[in-house]
Amino acid sequence: MNRCSTTLSPRPTLAPLAPLPPLPPLPPWALAAAKRHARRRARQGGAIIFIVSMTIGVLVSLGAFALLSAATEIKSAGYERQALQTHYLAEFAMVATAQKIGPDYAMAVESSMRVPSCAGCVGDYDPGYPRNHCTSLEAVPSTASASTRACKILRIPDLTQGWGGITTALRPSTPTAPGSLGAVPFDGDFGVEVTDAMFGAPVAGMANVGQQQLSMCPVTFTVATYGQTKPSVAYAGTNTKQIYGASSLEVGRGRLIGGPIPCPP
Question: Where do the domains of the chain lie?
Fold first, then answer.
């Protein structure tokens, strides 16, 4: 059995490093310049405060702008929602009127446009008012014919008759339950103005009344619809600026065919 032996060589000794040469002395002008810079920095101790203050001011301005942008966006979304609700109220008024002017109710509407149905009934023919309370007849002069000035105003109670026990078309919002317009303190309203009743040709095949042939004609109405949303009086009180300053109104206009009803003589 052979054995191997290894002999380590001694570690070489490193020579010591030579000392660095001394730095050359500064010239007199360099020392004077360094002293001047030191004195100048000593007099400018508040400059950093100004820089920090300007930085904080810029950051605060950016934060205020971001908050203002967010608040404006929220307001715009609320206005858009209110405008959309007002639009659908005006559209709903037109649909309710189209459903209402069947043969029976169209006869009552057409007759009350020309003859008062009761004393002081607002919305019926009233010779004491040039436009018969109707805003859509604003441009019609008081000297126009009676048929041109004829108008009938239909409000929510008129349009919701016979809706199967529904007492109100729009449920108001309360602090404990949202209303028809959501959980916002807003009230909605809609109404229509019926004008320009025009009879068409008699419809053939109508039934007889006794021995007399009853002539029935379709009647076409011009309908102006008004949809409105405004802050609830329960929240806004009697502050008219708050109520009407945040209200929204949309007006629609169309022609509806109703009847048939008895033809005019």
Answer: 59-262
